[in-house]
């Protein structure tokens, strides 16, 4: 199996685990020093270092503040050490009971079989409108 194929499998496994709410499996192939960046203007904005920081500051916050929050994968692109996931976020903000649906792109960087970086790009205005 080539490295690129393995990288695609790593990201696909993360998305599958996320859809099943399995945070342990989501972090299985994440490097201890991963740099995970959520876009400025997003509720979890910032760069979080390490799997526990990602769980606490990204997935924990989304689970706490949003009802039925999910990412629906539409396309997965293999660019070798970089894997690009394109899809849609959707959910209902608990405080306002407003729903949102926003396009999103994730750029994953894989090195030696581990996710070493993640960067998210999304329409933060649509997310903000659900929150206000």
Helix-strand makeup class: alpha+beta
Order of helices and strands: HHEEHEEEEH
Radius of gyration: 14 Å
Number of helices: 4
> How many strands, what sense, and barrel or not for the largest sheet?
6 strands, mixed
- Which percent range describes the beta-strand content? over 45%
Poorly predicted ranges: none
Ends distance: 48 Å
Overall residue-averaged pLDDT value = 94
What do these coordinates show?
This protein is an alpha+beta fold and 132 residues long. The chain is 33% helix and 47% strand. The protein has a six-stranded mixed beta sheet with strand order 2-1-6-5-4-3. A hairpin with a 2-residue loop joins strand 5 (98-111) and strand 6 (114-122). It is globular. The termini are far apart. The relative contact order is 0.20.
Key features of this structure:
132 residues, alpha+beta, 47% strand, globular
Question: What is this entry, summarized?
Answer:
It contains 4 helices and 6 strands, in the order ααββαββββα.
Write the layout of secondary structure elements.
Elements: H1 3-19, H2 23-26, E1 30-38, E2 46-49, H3 51-65, E3 66-79, E4 82-93, E5 98-111, E6 114-122, H4 124-131
Parallel strand pairs: 1-6
Antiparallel strand pairs: 1-2, 3-4, 4-5, 5-6
